[in-house]
Amino acid sequence: METQQKKHAALADIFNKDEARVDWHDQTLWFVRSKRDRLTHDIPEWEELRNTASQIKNHVLSRLQDYLLAFEKNAQANGVQVHWAADAREHNQIVCELLKKHGIDRMVKSKSMLTEECYLNDYLADNGIEVIDSDLGERIVQLAKEMPSHIVLPCIHKKKEEIGDIFHEHLGTAAGVSDPQILTETARQHLRDVFVTRKAALTGVNFAIAETGEMVVCTNEGNADMGAHLADIHIASMGIEKLIPKRAHLGVFLRLLTRSATGQPITTYSSHFRKPRKGQEMHVILVDNGRSRQLGRPDFKNSLKCIRCGACMNTCPVYRRSGGHSYHHAISGPIGSILAPNLDMEKFADLPFASTLCGSCSNVCPVKIDIHNQLYKWRQELVKAGYTDKKKTMAMKLMATTLASPTKFRLAGKMGRFTLKYAPFTVNNSLNPWYKGREMPVPPKQSFSEWYKERNR
Ligand code: SF4
Questions:
Q1: What pLDDT shows up at residue 440?
Q2: How far is CA 352 from the centre of its chain?
Q3: Which among 166, 137, 139, 141 is positioned nearest to 152, based on CA atoms?
């Protein structure tokens, strides 16, 4: 499922081959962004909420160790078993061992981008354990053997007709049926069977409250509740940055999260998991997987404030027109592009460049992450570390030398005008990626500086 061999531009090229899909993807996400705008304008204190959320998260990050230990202590006092995982491998091993210990080989899972980041499904499949994703969008991409293309809307890249074909192949609906109501009802019946037969359920965590040791999971489908309440073992996987100090702070985050994500006032279910019911085991796995390293990078630690609302994706002109899979990482879009290089600078060196740096992502971010600044800073880090395209780096150096010298700048301008006029084929050809889909400019007779001097003689 991983597409590490191709970089963003090449993967975007594949997505861009279907122009109708690109337009529709673009418009659908813009519609979600517009809904978000309408809802936020209804709240006069919106900016104040954003500032408060940002400050709470800053505070947590500055005392992360203390809050993690407080959360562990309170969760254990509630009867929850707490595990610590340094990386994805440890996380997957813990889940696998817990299931094997209980002789379980089938598990239901609600949406958790952390488990996507850890490639948990693949790991468990290799160990003979079947995982069924219970979020409708996740189930669709799972049946299609794809990764989610969006953190909130995992199958936003698929049309209902394609989903109809997937359901026909895997869930037995009639061929050609694409009515969303019929497809949803089919998924509901299919998942009901899964919920009542699985002894283990894994959920993600949206917010973990240090003060009480409880976890809050937000879903629109109630699938996390169905899985966790019916299972004998509930495993919750959370990144260590998901903490908030007090339950009272939820009021800030829950108001921001869904308005930013889908333009709803609140998620349909905001479920609190505090202690296992009688006879049930509840586990929480606190996963680092590079987060401590990111916390130690002053320029990038703010990215850990993310509450995974997806608003930065919905607004990003590059994401909307290149599709989530072009980011070849579980978390796509602008936030993925500042998180992924922390995990593997070489593999994800292309992502910070997949942006216009327009700043729209930072403008909509409910916790005020300066995403576009971090994209820009990652570019500098990646160039320094030598992970960028050598030809591009040389071209930039040449450009810098030219722009730094008035003589060289004038000479380059003359050469450019001459080439475009007398030998345009040397730039207007298929070897020049810039030329593809663009008209090269008609060369002016003189430079601006020549024109200016002429008039001010
Ligand atoms: S970076 Fe901000 S806008 Fe993007 S997903 Fe995270 S919280 Fe939402």
A1: 78
A2: 13
A3: 137
Q: Which residues line ligand 1 (CB under 6 A)?
A: 260, 306-312, 335, 364-367, 369, 371
pTM over 0.85: yes
> Which atom of ligand 1 sits closest to the CA of residue 303?
1
Average pLDDT of the residues in 41-62: 97
The pair of structure tokens assigned to 337 is: 């592009």
What distance in angstroms lies between residue 51's CA and the mean position of ligand 1's atoms? Answer: 14
- pLDDT bracket for residue 410 (50, 70, 90): very high
Question: Quick one: three-class SS letters along 281-330?
Answer: EEEEEEECCCHHHHHCCCCCHHHHHCCCCCHHHHHCHHHHHHCHHHHCCC
**How far is CA 309 from each of CA 32, 52, 160, rounded to the nearest angstrom?**
12, 17, 23
Instruction: Out of 260, 262, 331, give the residue to mutate to test ligand 1, the one with the largest number of ligand atoms within 8 Å of its CB.
Output: 260
Q: Using CA positions, which residue lies closest to atom 2 of ligand 1?
A: 365
Instruction: Say if residue 3's pLDDT is above 50.
Output: no
Which of 320, 330, 301 is CA-nearest to residue 361?
A: 320
CA of 211 to the centre of ligand 1 (A): 25
| Span from the CA of 308 to the centroid of ligand 1 (angstroms) | 5
Tell me what pLDDT residue 2 has.
Answer: 42
Q: What is the pLDDT of residue 431?
A: 82
285 CA from centroid of ligand 1 (Å): 23
**Of the residues 371, 372, 374, which should be mutated to test ligand 1's pocket, given the most ligand atoms within 8 Å of the CB?**
371
* pLDDT score of 53 more than 80: yes
Task: Please tell me the predicted confidence (pLDDT) of residue 1.
Answer: 41
Q: Which atom of ligand 1 is nearest the CA belonging to 333?
A: 4
Residue given tokens 């969006």 in the structure block: 150
- pLDDT digit string, tens, across residues 187-227: 999 999 999 999 999 999 999 999 999 999 999 999 999 99
Specify the residue with its C-alpha closest to ligand 1, atom 8.
309
Within 10 angstroms of residue 177's Cβ, the number of other Cβ atoms is 16
